[in-house]
Each structure stands twice: as structure tokens, then as C-alpha cells.
Amino acid sequence: MEVIFSNYSILIVDDNEINVMLLQVILEEERFHIYAAASAEEALAILDKNRIDLILMDVMMPEVSGFELTEKLKSTEKLRDIPILFITALNSPNDIIKGFDLGACDYVTKPFNQLELVRRIKHQISLIHSRNIIIEQKDRLKETMESRDLLYSIVSHDLRSPISSLKMILNILSSKAEENQLPAELVDMLYSGSDIAEQLFCLLDNLLKWTKSNMGIQTSMSQAFMFDETITGVIEVLLPTAKLKDVAIHLQLQHNIEILFDVDVMKSILRNLIINAIKFSHQSGNILINLYADDKWAVFEVTDHGVGMSIVTQDRLRAKIYGTYSLGTAREGGTGLGLWIVQHFVTINHGEFYFRSKEGEGSCFGFKIPRISSDEQILY
Predict the structure, then answer these.
(1) Fewest CB atoms less than 10 Å from the CB: which of 208, 221, 345, 346?
(2) CA-wise closest residue to 32 among 100, 126, 113, 105
(3) pLDDT tens figures, 257-286
(4) d(Cα 257, Cα 226) in Å, to the nearest integer?
(5) What residue ranges do the domains of the chain occupy?
């Protein structure tokens, strides 16, 4: 970090003309821009019209002492942050302590060693330089964060909303296609379009939640709702994706299980687990979705009879759930974010995520979260 000293201005406040000339010669050799004042009045006039980065202050001055001037500067909002280095013949411990108590950054006694003085001044200027860089970086970071928030707003609304609408339209068309006995090729195209829209929506949703969570800006709006109704709604939307592989989804849902959760986040969790089960199911396979109450818990499980996982794959997944993914049975890709979303949001909501699997036989992914018992009341 190179400091260009010619960019910095120093004000010398000393009523001794010889001292001022000596300091000016020394500091101009170091390329500093120098101002000089013989009194507090002159110093204040210079400070009012010029940007000063460091003040070299003598203590013994007529009318207003260096201590008094320092006290005035530190009480003025515009000037209080300018570092003050005392250069004075007063070297008693009490004088030195008083200077620091008033806000001085350093203290050099006369007669001073030229090399020591220059080093101390350069050190203070380096600190100022570092602080200025931090302030500039903070301002740039603030601008970046504002731009990021705007981008999130655009992605969340201007992109997420139309994809969601497209997904709903294709789902409706897909559900009506068979009823109207359209050609099989057209039905398959509708299912494929619906699946692509679902994948886009799921990817966008996962990326937004992952990014916001990592940056600490994810907001949660928990509300009470019946769990089985939400599950049924998510499954209905994913039926076209299941039909592409002719996968049958079977439900065993216990009714009247109420939970307190962010509905949007829960839909993301369910969507990721069900899509994952479809992805690793064989053509014309079966998936069982189970919901039941276990003491104070609501337990949700998705069981497929697909490819399953080896012990090595399971260990790798437990060690690092983010970034661990495989191609599906129909060469479906993925980002590895889905299971991270599930584990992260279940865990931070006081739940537990788990899975069981056997290679060649299938997998069961599930979680349990606190449920609202019948004798509990939710206050809004």
C-alpha cells in the first residue's frame, strides 16, 4: 500500500518562526503540502478554508494555548477527526497525559530527532491513508449492496413472477390435455414444457434463498397452516414432471397436523425433496409420500424405489450436503442446492433432516419439525 505524501496537507501551529521554518523544510523534503499558523486564530482561519490531514501543535502559545486549541477542535464536528501531534518542550508526565486526554494522537518533545519525527508523521499519515481507503471501500460496498438489493428485487419479482405464471399456465394446459384427448405428442410436449418451467422456477428459487441466507438477508414470515394441504398443493404442481417418467405418486397423509413455518420456504423444501425422488426414480416407478405425527413432531418422508446410494455416496453427502449431486436416471442434471435448502431451513427452524438409502433399492429423505398441538394457541 503505497502512500503518496504529496496528496496530504499538514498544518504547523507554532508561534516560533524558526521552529516553523525548520519543520517546513523537513516536511517539504518529504513532499508534504505545508500550512503554517502562529496563533489559534490563524489556525482556525486556515482550517476553515483548506483540507488539513494532520496538525503539528505547539503547546506554549500566547492568548490561546495548544491544549486549549485542541480542546476547541475536538469539540467541533467538522474538525474533531483531524489527528493532532504535539511538538513541545513540555515533557512532564502530566503534560503528556493531558495532551492524550484531550485527543492527541502522538507526542514529540523538543528538541526532536528529525528522523524520529518524520517516521512518526509518516506513520500517522499512513493510518489516515488506510482509514480513507476503508471509507472508500465502505462507500463502494454500500453502492454494491444497493445494486444487489435492486437485482434481487428484479429477479424476485420481474423474473420469478413471470416464470411462476408460465409454470401455472403449462400445468393447467397439461391437466386439460388428456381430458380433451389431444395427440400424445402434444401432451408430451406440454408435460416437457411444464417440467422445464418447473426446473427454472426451482433453480431460481433455490439460488435466491441460498444467496440471501448466506448474506444474512433472508426474511422469514412464519404462519400456522395445515401441513397436508400444502403438501397436496405442491404435488399437484409437480404431476407433469412425474408423468414425464410415468412415475406414480402415492400419498399417506395424516390430516389435521398444523405447523408454524414460512409457507414459501416450506413449499421450496417439499418441491426439492419430491423432485429429487422423481429424478432418481426409474421409468414407471413409484414414490410414497408420508406425513404423520410423532409426539410433538410432524414427520414428512419421501420414499422412492430408484437407484439408491452407495455407502460412500451417503457418507459424502452427510459430510458435505452442498455441492454433492449426481445425474438422475434420465440424465437429469442439478446444482446440488436442493438438499442444502432442505437441511438448512429445516435445521434453523428447530427441525431435523435425515435420509436412508440402499444402493439399487431406493432412498428415503425426510425431516421432522415441531407441530402445533391441539392445546396450543397461536397469537397473531
Answers:
(1) 221
(2) 126
(3) 999 998 988 998 999 999 999 989 999 999
(4) 6
(5) 5-112, 220-380
Query: Measuring CA to CA, which residue among 169, 171, 167, 156 is closest to residue 205?
Result: 156
**Residue 378 has what pLDDT?**
44
* 125-147 confidence digits (pLDDT tens): 999 898 888 888 888 888 877 77
Predicted pLDDT of residue 6 = 86
Tell me the C-alpha distance between 141 and 128, whole Å.
20
pLDDT tens for each residue of 138-190? 888 888 777 766 666 666 656 666 677 777 777 777 766 666 666 777 777 77
Q: What is the CA radius of gyration of the chain?
A: 35
Fold designation for 220-380: Heat Shock Protein 90 (3.30.565)
* Amino acid identity, position 376: E
- Cα 162 to Cα 148, 165, 191: the distances in Å are 20, 5, 18
Q: Are the CB atoms for 278 and 248 separated by under 8 Å? A: no
- pLDDT attached to residue 188: 72
Q: In Å, what is the CA distance from 337 to each residue of 255, 317, 344? A: 30, 12, 10
Rounded Cα distance, 129 and 190, in Å = 62
- Is 222 or 380 the better-scoring residue by pLDDT? 222
CA pair distance 80, 78, nearest whole angstrom:
6
Do the beta carbons of residue 346 and residue 269 sit within 8 Å?
yes
Superfamily (CATH H level) for 5-112: Response regulator (3.40.50.2300)
Q: Which residues lie closer than 8 Å to 112 by C-beta, 6 or more apart? A: 87
pTM score: 0.56
The amino acid occupying position 85 is: L
5-112 with 220-380: one CATH topology? no
**Cβ-contact 118, 26 below 8 angstroms:** yes
